[in-house]
Amino acid sequence: RYWVGIPASLETLLSSAAFIVNNNLAVAYGELTVAAMGIAQKLLSLGNYIYQGFAAGTQPLMGYNYGAKNQDRMRKILKAGVLTVTGTEIVLMLMYAVFAPYLIDVFTDSGEVIEIGAHVLRRLMFILPFVGTVSMCRMSFQAMGKPVYAFVITLVRQLFLYVPLLLLFNSIFGFDGMIWAQPVTEVIMMIVSVFLLYTIIKKEQKSADK
Length: 210
Prior knowledge:
Layout: H1 2-26, H2 31-67, H3 71-105, H4 111-124, H5 128-143, H6 147-173, H7 175-209
Helix pairs in contact: 1-6, 2-3, 2-4, 2-5, 3-4, 3-5, 5-6, 5-7, 6-7
């Protein structure tokens, strides 16, 4: 039971650490850039609340059906959750693409901050179709009583993938590279998370059929 809460706690801790690294890199591009990135990140956090809510809502349903050995219904809940959260995030992404300058304008009167913020938001928004699936996979492992896998996903995502890519892309591609590090991280993590969950579910199904 203790392990179940660790991935979520670790996610918060490592996200804060990654945010500090991100801000320290952004300082090199000026104070206005730091302000613009902060606004863009705040707007992007709306998408985080959406996928976190969906994942938290489906976790008890999946846990109940997993405990009842109703694998078919558990997979249907997972599929419905992934499709719903992905569809919602895509709609939000399109809103950001169209209205980014106007949304940044709500928080600042600086034309330069609005321009930089819109630029950042229109790149970071590409994480939205992928982060929901990663979160759903992580919650699925917790619902299945396999928090170690959720722990690995969280650790790899923030510590071994995002921060190194952040530093690498910034050194090679500059400011735009720093921004694109997060979308690239989420694409890779979605592929890894789905593969891992699919493998575990298939393995358990084969064991149950024997």
